[in-house]
Specification:
two-stranded antiparallel sheet, single chain, A middle domain of Talin 1, mainly alpha
Length: about 375
């Protein structure tokens, strides 16, 4: 068991995360309702979402040992994508379709390139070559490739002028229904906990203590670290943080248009970079935190499940909800450069992760590709 001073430090840090998140939400509310200009409410709401993400990260860390990496990744990604769902719905209500389309593709790019790259860099520099669960990695990446391929079919039909191009709204609704059905069919496999097996040569496996995070290396060996929080508290904080993030998302969208005008930012760049990163702040924080702790399987599961759920759930759900709620209709016909960018991201990530290993150099390469793509959208 950890020594008393160590546990006191952990408890103080938990307290600071909770207090900091609460203070950030209050600041976002005050600047939103108090009329604090164009940029300040936008910045405060973005900071609030990020700090709430840290609270979610602590809660997920306490849940990980109980549920396993698969279920933890799905739970984390589902709650992490709630702010983005609300941001997108409020943006569609305001008629910002270009922002939503860029944000959906940008979220996939940010997770596959930026966040996964940061996790590889931090984990690689601290722990050397990190091992991923090769079987789980292959299954997730293959599903990611297939779901993104299905999501961009309406765009291809539109740009090659097939007969289906005249029915892009209907085609988008059909594709969305198929993707949601695919998610329902694959969910049990994602939640299944892998059987324990011995690692070879000190490598992490699904049953390895280092992979599950049940112990920490202290130089003299491995010592057990039990979850500090009861299950009900971890789940309650997860739900509370997600609900607060939904409110902050409303304020974020309200401040988005004035901030874009004040900062002279295009809708494409705002959606692809700013909204995508703010909406995925949970994965941005949690994935890197887990990689820094040497929990590479959890880090990969959390980061990769987010873009997978965007392609399988969030984008299809937004297409359907935009029609049901009478908002500006969202279809799966994306601008050509967005389609090319997401295909590049998926293919590169598949090549890098398919061997079940990650290095900091691969992470740096992913970040570099993201920087190039993001720069290309600066002018719109």
């Amino acid at each position: 068991m950890p020594t008393a001073p160590a546990r006191d430090t952990f408890l103080r840090s938990d307290y600071l995360i909770v207090v900091g998140g609460a203070a950030a939400v209050v600041a976002a509310a005050v600047t939103h309702y108090g009329g604090a200009g164009a940029v300040l409410p936008f910045a405060c709401s973005a900071v609030a979402v990020t700090l709430l993400a840290s609270l979610v990260g602590r809660s997920v860390e306490q849940l990980g040992d109980r549920f396993g990496p698969g279920a933890t990744g799905v739970l984390q990604s589902a709650l992490g994508n709630l702010p983005e769902l609300f941001i997108a719905l409020f943006a569609l209500k305001a008629g910002l379709v270009a922002v939503v389309q860029a944000a959906l593709i940008g979220s996939i790019l940010a997770n596959l390139l930026l966040v996964l790259g940061m996790a590889f860099v931090v984990g690689g520099l601290r722990h050397g070559t990190q091992q991923l669960d090769s079987e789980r990695a292959r299954q997730t990446i293959v599903l990611m490739v297939l779901s993104v391929a299905a999501m961009v079919v309406p765009s291809l039909a539109h740009y090659v002028h097939t007969p289906a191009a005249a029915h892009e709204k209907t085609l988008s609704l059909i594709v969305s229904a198929v993707l949601l059905l695919l998610f329902a069919l694959t969910l049990p496999a994602s939640l299944r906990r892998e059987p324990q097996r011995a690692g070879a040569g000190g490598r992490e496996t699904a049953g390895d203590e280092r992979a599950t995070g049940r112990s920490r290396s202290t130089g003299a060996g491995m010592e057990q670290e039990q979850p500090r929080w009861p299950l009900w508290l971890a789940v309650a904080l997860l739900v509370l943080a997600a609900v607060l993030a939904a409110f902050v998302s409303d304020w974020f969208v309200a401040a988005l248009q004035p901030a874009m005008q004040a900062l002279n930012i295009s809708q494409a760049f705002a959606g692809l970079v700013i909204v995508a990163i703010a909406g995925n702040a949970v994965e941005n924080v949690v994935g890197v935190q887990l990689a820094a702790q040497g929990r590479s399987e959890y880090a990969f599961s959390v980061v990769i499940n987010s873009p997978l759920q965007i392609a399988l759930v969030l984008a299809p759900l937004l297409v359907i909800l935009s029609s049901l709620l009478g908002f500006t209709a969202l279809t799966l016909v994306f601008p050509p450069l967005l389609v090319v960018a997401v295909v590049i991201a998926v293919v590169i990530t598949a090549f890098i992760t398919f061997d079940g290993e990650s290095t900091w150099i691969e992470g740096a390469a992913l970040i570099a590709v993201y920087a190039v793509i993001a720069t290309s959208f600066w002018w719109g």
